[in-house]
Design a protein that fits this description.
The complex is a heterodimer of chains A (145) and B (109). Chain A is mainly α. In chain A, 62% of the residues lie in helices and 0% in strands. Chain A has helices spanning 4-27, 32-46, 53-72, 76-80, 84-92, 101-117. By secondary structure, chain B is of the alpha+beta class. In chain B, a hairpin with a 7-residue loop joins strand 2 (61-66) and strand 3. Chain B has one domain: Orthogonal Bundle (Arc Repressor Mutant, subunit A), CATH 1.10.10. The chains are: A mainly alpha (145), B alpha+beta (109). Chain B: It comes from Miniimonas arenae. Chain B: This is PadR family transcriptional regulator.
Amino acid sequence: MTGWIEKVTGPLEEKKRYRQHRARLRALPEPYRTAQEGVERYLMHAGGMVGGDSLVRMLDDLDEIFAGAVADRTPVRALVGEDPVAFVEDFLSGYAEGQWVAKERRRLVETIDRAAQADPSVPDGEAPDGEAPDGERPTSGGGAS
Amino acid sequence: MGRQMTEMLKGTLEGIVLAILAVRPAYGYEITAGLRDRGFTDIAEGTVYALLVRIEQRGLVDVERVASQKGPPRKVYTLNDAGRTSLAEFWGTWSFLAQRLGQLRAEGQ
């Protein structure tokens, strides 16, 4: 999928974008700079990002949010809210594909798919979550989804 | 604001923002002001901005950058066809939930 050119230029492009991000952060007025540094520290330590494109995109987006707050004169507290952790966790949820745990999430889904397919308690051709006729419920398996 | 309200808003904020944009295109700060005016206080503005980033990436809004006298250009968000489809789906889900919950409530009274 990735050619050798992208293998070389991709990371270079990301490095460039990362340097631009650092420069924007340094230029940010206080107290926004301290706040964004705090948010970023949390993202780096607790975000579980593998790096690469989603990480750089995440930092770019964060820059935009903070730059927007400066432009709109939104106070730091109003921007981040009473629960800064909740704010950052919500922000982070937009970049789930860039977290190392994404691989494990996919693996879990595939494993359960395999296990469910081999499940002897589900007769062939019967959808486990299918609608039961006349309001009757299957006595086992299925269950509300 | 109660924890329950926070949790419920988490699942509905996107629909609420799309609904606000269905009224007219708006800047980010107009959207947060619109939320406050409608009684949705205590939502961190950053949460709304992060949501705007996400719905832009998912192609639910068209974005136009407008130069401002001070600071970076501001973005105007306009609901597009994909956004209207998503909003219609949200209202469908909302009606379904409201109806089923109303039924459940009536059963227990």
